[in-house]
């Protein structure tokens, strides 16, 4: 059976996923029981005012340990990471943060006998030699980016700690995540977020991947729900641990633009692929998430047009308030 989570630490809580995950965890477990942390980016007023927030550096294990001791932490959602596009500009930083930060969390998990450690992975683990359509859970992992390399290493490291030490670790391979709450932080799939902002703000967008580029994507509410569902699942029923394929929908950049045009008919899109195109070409068109569905009951709730309608409504509201890029 799965032990109850009581005191939760979220690293990377100012990031695109971490910020919204933190708010949802506070709703479910109580604001005072969810400690948000970041390295240097200032949190939003909502995040800072809703519960405890501290600056830490996951590469400096003593700063993480201080939080664990101060709040008697039993569960960690380790969301701090350098993403793909930023990682290609600074591979050493990507390795340092993603690998050293992860092993610090795992070592502290052992030392303090954590109830649970959640460490997400990414579709960036995939590379050449995979079936591009319906990419299976078990397949060759030969990533082409430092971010992908660190995520493969992270998956293997987490599984080692499960088997070697019995530490309860869970993780899922996020596809591209789309949200109206927090601006993206340097990932290859950022175009799928920026296009909505630019559609509302300027009515046109220059996309940095080709029109026919197809990638797995997910709306943030599904990403948050899936992450918490996995964290709350019965550990004894999990055959996999740190590498669940996590899927919702797949679409091309052109299909995304067409979806927006249903609501903003005059929206204009041009395509000027840059260095991120090569990264996108190494990733799947779609992924098979049957293991997640079978082992912990995953089922997405959002499709492309429903997401587009919701995104545009929320971003239009923010534009009217003058907070579109807050």
Can you put this structure into words, describing what you see?
It is a single chain. This protein is α/β, with parallel strands linked by helices. The protein has two domains: 8-176 and 218-245, NAD(P)-binding Rossmann-like Domain (Rossmann fold, 3-Layer(aba) Sandwich), CATH 3.40.50; 179-216 and 249-284 and 302-321, UDP-galactose 4-epimerase, domain 1 (Alpha-Beta Complex). It has twelve helices and 14 strands. It has a six-stranded parallel sheet, with helices on both faces. The protein is globular, with a radius of gyration of 19 Å. The N and C termini lie far apart (42 Å).
Q: Characterize the biggest β-sheet.
A: 6 strands, parallel
**Secondary structure tally, helices:** 12
Give the overall pLDDT as a whole number: 95
Task: Please indicate the count of domains.
Answer: 2
Helix content: 40-55%
The CATH homologous superfamily of the largest domain is called NAD(P)-binding Rossmann-like Domain
């Amino acid at each position: 059976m799965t032990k109850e989570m009581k005191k939760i630490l979220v690293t990377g809580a100012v990031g695109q996923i971490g910020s919204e995950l933190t708010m949802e965890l506070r709703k479910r477990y109580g604001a005072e029981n969810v400690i948000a942390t970041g390295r240097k980016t200032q949190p939003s007023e909502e995040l800072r005012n809703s519960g405890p927030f501290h600056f830490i550096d996951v590469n400096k294990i003593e700063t993480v340990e201080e939080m664990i001791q101060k709040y008697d932490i039993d569960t960690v959602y380790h969301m701090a990471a350098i993403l793909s596009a930023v990682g290609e500009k600074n591979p050493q930083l990507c390795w340092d943060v993603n690998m050293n930060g992860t092993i610090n969390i795992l070592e502290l998990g052992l030392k303090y006998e954590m109830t649970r450690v959640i460490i997400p992975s990414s579709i960036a683990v995939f590379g050449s030699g995979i079936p591009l359509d319906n990419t299976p859970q078990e397949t060759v992992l030969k990533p082409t980016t430092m971010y992908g390399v660190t995520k493969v290493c992270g998956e293997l490291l987490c599984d080692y700690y499960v088997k070697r030490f019995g530490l309860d670790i869970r993780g899922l391979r996020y596809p591209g995540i789309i949200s109206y709450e927090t601006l993206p932080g340097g990932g290859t799939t950022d175009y799928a977020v920026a296009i909505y902002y630019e559609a509302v703000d300027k009515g046109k967008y220059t996309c940095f991947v080709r029109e026919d580029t197809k990638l797995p994507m997910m709306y943030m509410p599904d990403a948050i729900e899936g992450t918490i569902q996995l964290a709350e699942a019965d550990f004894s029923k999990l055959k996999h641990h740190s590498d669940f394929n996590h899927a919702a929908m797949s679409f091309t950049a052109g299909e995304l633009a067409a979806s927006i045009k249903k609501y903003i008919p005059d929206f204009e899109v041009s395509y000027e692929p840059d260095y991120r195109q090569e990264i996108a070409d190494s990733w799947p068109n779609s992924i098979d998430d049957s293991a997640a569905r079978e082992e912990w009951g995953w089922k997405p709730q959002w499709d492309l047009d429903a997401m587009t309608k919701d995104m545009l409504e929320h971003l239009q509201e923010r534009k009217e308030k003058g907070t579109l890029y807050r």
